[in-house]
Write a structure and sequence with these properties.
alpha+beta; two-stranded antiparallel ribbon; two-stranded antiparallel sheet; about 30% helix; binds zinc ion
């Protein structure tokens, strides 16, 4: 049987096996690209995390409790001050 088969790959990120279907294999070969090293899930997660890198969170200033916007979420372990409290803190 000369029929093309799906290539099984182990994801380098999560270790899960995933399949590269013949159509995909053809695509990568045509583009002279290596087969992906990460499963579709991890690839999607990576894309999302890259896009969310500068995500802003609504949270409260740890001093005056005013609502502010920060790159750190409310459950992060950092103490976040609003602009005014920050300047006050710096003296
Ligand atoms: Zn994976
Ligand atoms: Zn404040």
């Amino acid at each position: 049987m000369a029929e093309a088969t799906s290539e099984k790959q182990g994801c380098k990120a999560c270790g899960k096996d995933f399949l590269i279907i013949p159509a995909e294999q053809l695509f990568y070969k045509k583009k002279k690209l290596d087969f992906p090293e990460n499963c579709p899930d991890c690839r999607r997660k990576r894309r999302l995390s890259l896009r969310n890198e500068r995500k802003l969170y609504k949270r409260k200033c740890d001093k005056c409790k005013k609502n502010i916007v920060s790159t750190y979420s409310a459950d992060s372990k950092y103490t976040i001050y609003c602009q005014e409290c920050y300047w006050e803190y710096l003296g």
